[in-house]
Amino acid sequence: MTHYLDFEKPLAEIEGKAEELRNMARNNEEMHVGDEAAALDRKARDMLKDLYKKLTPWRKCQVARHPDRPHCKDYIEALFTEYTPLAGDRGFADDHAVMGGLARFNDRPVMVIGHEKGHDTQSRIERNFGMARPEGYRKAIRLMDMADRFGIPVITLVDTPGAYPGKGAEERGQSEAIARSTEKCLQIGVPLVSVIIGEGGSGGAVAFATANRLAMLEHSVYSVISPEGCASILWKDSDKMREAAEALRLTAQDLQKLGVCDRIIAEPLGGAHRDREATIASVGKMISAMLDEMGDMKPKALIKARRDKFLEMGDRGLAA
Any idea where the CoA carboxyltransferase C-terminal domain is (predicted)? Predict the structure, then answer.
């Protein structure tokens, strides 16, 4: 069953009527409703184009959070071969919100790490809705260390509303773990590429996305805080999330102008969830292109380029 967002309700009505006509025709061979169904399909497609022609930042947030978007697990299964998951932080536990391990990408050994939100109620609870705890970030640090030791590229797939803010996570050093993971991103002497595939929330995303190259899917978002959280702080009213989304400059298009995002990956009409296979293939092509750009770079050059990139962001921001 297709999950429709609030602003897609008129579209749901038209597509529902077209499907209803087709079902009636299947149950009654004497009915000839093909032309009517095709006309409704054309109307739905035109409406879909209009809806997605110029999405507001808040609507992009809704699309980025769509439950049917491909998640980290889907990308790993489709794009990587010989994936060998590596678990645990060797200190406390294994965090199921973060998955990662050794794999081959285009027959090249890599380390892939990402946030996994889950696809149904049970898996979302198990994955803590993609909100990592300290042990998740410490697992990522361990895997990045291993990649650095063996000289293999690191690929990160970011999709999190933010790091988990629970009492236990804070007691175990959540902010320190995020800072250490961000620091490790800046230290490793291998290519590091990151893709925001849905939400890139706060330091929980930065800890994986401090990369040589950062790409974002067209309707993904990346911000220091969620629009709801920002609205609660600034206006004491979470219903002001639309205004907050505008102010945060969290879209891929805004972030490319600001120099935070290096590449934007086009999504199929209607968002990644309407053609998951095409979206995954586009992400694979972009990862391959970004890795190829750094093919001949030495470890010291990779580290310097990565550090310079983030230091220059502040200069650009002041100039703007």
Answer: 39-293
Residues in contact with 247: Cβ distance below 8 Å, sequence separation at least 6, in sequence order: 230
Half-sphere exposure of 303 (CA within 13 A, CB side): 10
Q: In angstroms, rounded to a whole number, what is the distance separating the alpha carbons of residues 59 and 56?
A: 5
Judge contact between 79 and 284, C-beta under 8 A.
yes
Q: Dump pLDDT digits (tens) for 198-216.
A: 999 989 999 999 999 999 9
CA-to-CA distance for 19 and 99, rounded, in angstroms? 38
Sorted by where each begins, the domain ranges of the chain are 8-53, 62-319
pLDDT tens readout for residues 59-81: 999 999 999 999 999 999 999 99
Cα–Cα distance measured from residue 147 to residue 188, given in angstroms and rounded to the nearest whole number:
8
Q: To the nearest 5 percent, what fractions of the chain are helix, strand and coil?
A: 55, 15, 30
H/E run at residue 102: strand 98-105
Architecture of domain 62-319: Alpha-Beta Complex (3.90)
